[in-house]
Write a structure and sequence with these properties.
GO terms for molecular function: structural constituent of ribosome. One of its GO terms (biological process) is translation. Keywords: Ribonucleoprotein, Ribosomal protein. This protein is α+β, with helices and mostly antiparallel strands and 65 residues long. The protein has one domain: Factor Xa Inhibitor (Irregular), CATH 4.10.410. Strands 1-2-3 form a three-stranded antiparallel beta sheet. Strand 1 and strand 2 form a beta hairpin. It is elongated, with a radius of gyration of 15 Å.
Length: 65
């Protein structure tokens, strides 16, 4: 039986905390920032927790985390 591999895209995007919750960064903060307001860009800073409905699929992509 071969080893289960981690999805390389998922390992770049998600971090599993010690408590078991999964941390993710905000979307819509990479490019086309000129038309976004300063308030919007400020609120897109920081990290969030992955929603409960998506945790199962993210865990499947990170079998060794």
């Amino acid at each position: 039986m071969p080893k289960m591999k981690t999805k390389s895209g998922a390992k770049k995007r998600f971090i599993v905390r010690a408590s078991g919750s999964i941390k993710r960064s905000q979307a819509f903060k990479r490019h086309i920032l000129t038309k976004k307001t300063t308030k919007t860009k400020r609120q897109l800073r920081g990290m969030l927790t992955v929603h409960a409905s998506n945790v199962k699929s993210v865990r499947a992509m990170l079998p060794n985390a």
